[in-house]
Specification:
The protein folds into three domains: 6-37, no CATH class; 52-147 and 277-304, Rossmann fold, CATH 3.40.50.2300; 149-275, Rossmann fold. The protein has 13 helices and twelve strands. By secondary structure, it is of the alpha/beta class.
């Protein structure tokens, strides 16, 4: 219709230079007459790029929607992709996930919230799909981004010790996640010779935090502080402390982890370890896009800093 070659049409549509004004005008007139718009599938086949990345969250959908952590990660992913044409496909693990992701539907994948020695990242990596994991994986040799969970928990515990608390408990995260193990290790290191026997593991939910806090109080009614390995669990812990008549922080000092939106609105406002979750999502996305774009010398792992935020609970 325009009377020019296909390569000229392609250069005009993609805004490439070195096209004459006459040819450019002819192509735009043909586009208007034909009502043409680019076909994404055809462009994918021609360029061998899907212009999409997968965000795989290894948690039930109800958990993803309820936990502010995942919302923060998603905000970071979208912020890093601003101005780009990449689509984000948010997915949960399924039996055919490896086949789908390695079948050309996406250019790469971000995988977060791994449990145990989940083989998914290594399987995708072995299929040749660029991948980055959110959180230190317990198995496989794949690139990952993590927050400094050990030192964050260490600083939180040292703060409780500095307040003169001597019976300090820990509501730890899941045993099958590196984040749970690393924060528990930081708590143990920060106890400075104090008894480190008061530990209850819990999943990252308010309900599990409440159950763990109740179990700790049953075991040690004299406990005077608790490090809770996530703000969302700390909400449940605070609820139990209030129900048992324990004043916070007078009777029991409480420190959480994440500095999510939940921390500032807790009663009392929660002293917590801040990890920049949006920066976490942005860094995951940057690391993946850098690999997709052929960057050399990329670090195999990135550790993001944490800091203690002082509020009224400790």
């Amino acid at each position: 219709m325009a009377g020019v070659s296909r390569s000229t049409v392609s250069r005009v549509i993609n805004g490439a230079p070195h096209v004459s004004a006459a040819a450019r005008d002819a192509v735009h007139r043909a586009i208007a007459r034909l009502g043409y718009s680019p076909n994404h599938a055809a462009r994918t086949l021609a360029g061998r790029r899907a212009n999409a990345i997968a965000l795989v969250v290894s948690e039930p959908g109800s958990r993803v929607l309820a936990d502010p952590f995942f919302a923060g990660v998603l905000r970071g992913v979208h912020a890093e992709l601003a101005g780009q044409t990449q689509l984000v496909l948010m997915m949960n693990p399924s039996d055919d996930l490896v086949a789908y992701l390695s079948g050309g539907h996406v250019d790469g994948a971000i995988v977060v919230s791994l449990h145990g020695e989940d083989p998914l990242p290594q399987l995708l990596h072995d299929k040749g799909l660029p991948i980055v994991v959110g959180g230190r994986p317990l198995a496989g040799a794949v690139p990952y981004v993590d927050s400094d969970n050990f030192n964050g928990a260490l600083e939180a515990t040292r703060h409780l010790v500095s307040l003169g608390r001597t019976r300090i408990a820990c509501v730890a995260g899941p045993r099958d996640m590196a984040v749970g193990r690393d924060r528990l290790s930081g708590w143990r290191r920060g106890m400075h010779g104090l008894p480190a026997d008061l530990v209850e593991h819990a999943d990252f939910t308010p309900q599990d935090g409440a159950k763990a806090m109740a179990a700790l109080l049953d075991r040690a009614p004299d406990l005077d502080a608790v490090f809770v390995a996530a703000d969302i669990m700390a909400l449940g812990a605070l609820k139990i402390l209030h129900e048992r008549g324990r004043r916070v922080p007078e009777d029991v000092a409480v420190v959480g982890f994440d500095d999510s939106v939940l921390a500032a609105t807790a009663v009392p406002p929660l002293t917590t370890v801040r990890q920049d979750v949006e920066r976490f999502g942005r860094t995951l996305t940057w690391r993946l896009l850098a690999e997709l774009n052929g960057a050399e010398g990329l670090p195999p792992s990135i550790l993001l800093p944490t800091e203690l935020v002082h509020r009224d609970s400790a």
